[in-house]
């Protein structure tokens, strides 16, 4: 697949971060008006490598949105700080007064009935050192399970919710009524513990510490124990890569097959990021 991408675009140079996941793509300007063939080649490469990185892309916010929209409909996140002029863009800004909190493995918005296909994150301001993002290949994480566990989780469903965001609303002063209205608008979703990628047909582990609450129809203690064991798969370094940001670096990850973790080691330094999120389909 990587060969296909370079065949289609001989001006690209691909640098894999690890054998398992993550590729830097050099020789592309994200702001160009790309042909359908180029977008298809990037999509194929994304499915194969789970996360693509692009450096030195001093493009406009509008170009970020236009590029992301080539891969699908964009979401407006109902809980985070959205850009005033561009609601599809969320700001993830942290500094001394606003400590980072997404240093936990997750896939984006799995509490939605149709969670994200992929996210495209841009670095605006980065600390001198630290603030890397780590990515884990959840297909490899699934493949690495023993056969008994694979059998145990085959066909199980898990419940995902946004209670963390609701608690954040409450902390910022929202009333109980406002929080309850959001809870009703975005109720929990259930998804298979093992999802099948709609493009590659490959199986991946689709539970995460941020949003998964329990395995449906399982005793709570048993569910907790099983989920803790499954979450730990993302922690195995063999399934990971780690990206060091520079201003105007972009990362494009496949939320259907990868999880990510934003290291909080730089705090109280400043780190400012902008994310555009592409809507996906119902996991099966
Ligand atoms: C995210 O979790 O979407 C953001 C990751 C990051 O800031 O590195």
Record field, number of beta strands: 15
* Tally of helical segments: 8
Strand order of the largest sheet: 1-2-3-13-5-15-4
Rg on CA atoms, Å: 19 Å
Helix content: 25-40%
Report how far the terminal alpha carbons are from each other. 24 Å
Mean pLDDT: 95
- By secondary-structure content and strand pairing, the structural class works out as alpha+beta
Small ligands present: succinic acid
Strand content: 25-35%
Low-confidence stretches: none
Order of SSEs: HEEHEHEEEHHEHHEEEEHEEEE
Task: Tell me about the largest β-sheet.
Answer: 7 strands, mixed
Q: Which outline best applies?
A: globular
Could you characterize the architecture of this molecule?
With 284 residues, the chain is α+β, with helices and mostly antiparallel strands. 26% of the residues lie in helices and 26% in strands. It has a seven-stranded mixed β-sheet, with helices on one face. Strand 1 (13-16) and strand 2 form a beta hairpin. Succinic acid is lined by residues 92, 102, 108, 119, 121, 133, 260, 262, 273, 275. Succinic acid (SIN) binds next to strand 5, strand 14 and strand 15.
Provide a concise account of the structure shown.
By secondary structure, the chain is of the alpha+beta class. It has helices spanning 2-8, 36-49, 61-69, 138-143, 147-153, 163-171, 176-185, 220-231; strands at 13-16, 23-26, 51-54, 89-94, 116-125, 133-137, 157-160, 189-192, 194-196, 203-205, 212-215, 240-243, 250-254, 258-262, 271-279. Bound molecules: succinic acid.
């Amino acid at each position: 697949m990587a060969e296909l991408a370079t065949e289609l675009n001989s001006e690209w140079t691909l640098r894999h971060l690890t054998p398992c996941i993550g590729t830097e793509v050099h020789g592309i300007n994200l702001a160009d008006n790309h042909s359908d063939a180029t977008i298809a080649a990037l999509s194929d490469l994304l499915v194969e490598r789970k996360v693509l990185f692009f450096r030195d892309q001093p493009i406009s916010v509008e170009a970020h949105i236009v590029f992301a929209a080539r891969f699908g409909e964009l979401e407006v996140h109902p809980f985070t700080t959205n850009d005033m002029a561009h609601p599809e863009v969320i700001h993830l800004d942290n500094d001394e007064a606003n400590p980072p909190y997404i240093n936990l493995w997750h896939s984006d918005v799995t509490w939605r009935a149709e969670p994200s296909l992929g996210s495209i994150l841009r670095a605006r301001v980065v600390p001198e050192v630290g603030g890397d993002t780590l990515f884990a290949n959840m297909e490899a994480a699934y493949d690495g399970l023993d056969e008994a566990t694979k059998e145990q989780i085959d066909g199980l469903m898990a419940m995902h919710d946004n209670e963390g965001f609701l608690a954040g609303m409450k902390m910022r002063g929202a009333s109980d009524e406002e929080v309850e209205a959001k809870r009703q608008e975005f109720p929990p979703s259930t998804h298979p513990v093992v999802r099948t990628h709609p493009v590659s047909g490959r199986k991946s582990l689709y539970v995460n510490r941020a949003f998964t609450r329990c395995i449906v129809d399982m005793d709570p203690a048993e569910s907790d124990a099983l989920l803790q064991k499954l979450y730990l798969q993302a922690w195995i370094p063999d399934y990971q890569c780690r990206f060091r940001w520079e201003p105007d670096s972009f990362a494009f990850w496949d939320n259907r097959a990868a999880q990510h973790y934003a290291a909080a080691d730089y705090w109280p330094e400043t780190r400012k990021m902008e994310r555009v999120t592409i809507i996906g389909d119902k996991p099966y």
